[in-house]
Design the sequence.
């Protein structure tokens, strides 16, 4: 049986934590930052954790990460 291919676009955007949860970079921190509050920008810096239902879809895209 041939190897399964990893979706490279997903591999660049998503990472698996040590607990097995999927981490991602939050959107909205690239431009137009003057109108966003400091608190909002600080929270956007932290990595987001993907919801378990979405995680099932990601498992198919990243077969060798889990």
Sequence:
């Amino acid at each position: 049986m041939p190897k399964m291919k990893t979706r490279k676009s997903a591999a660049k955007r998503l990472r698996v934590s040590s607990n097995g949860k999927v981490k991602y970079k939050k959107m909205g921190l690239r431009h137009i930052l003057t109108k966003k509050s400091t608190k909002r920008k600080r929270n956007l810096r932290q990595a987001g954790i993907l919801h378990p239902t979405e995680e099932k879809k990601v498992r198919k895209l990243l077969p060798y990460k889990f």
About this structure: The chain has three helices and three strands. The first strand starts at residue 14 and ends at 16. The helical segments are 8-13, 38-45, 52-61. The domain at 8-61 is CATH 4.10.410.60 (Factor Xa Inhibitor).
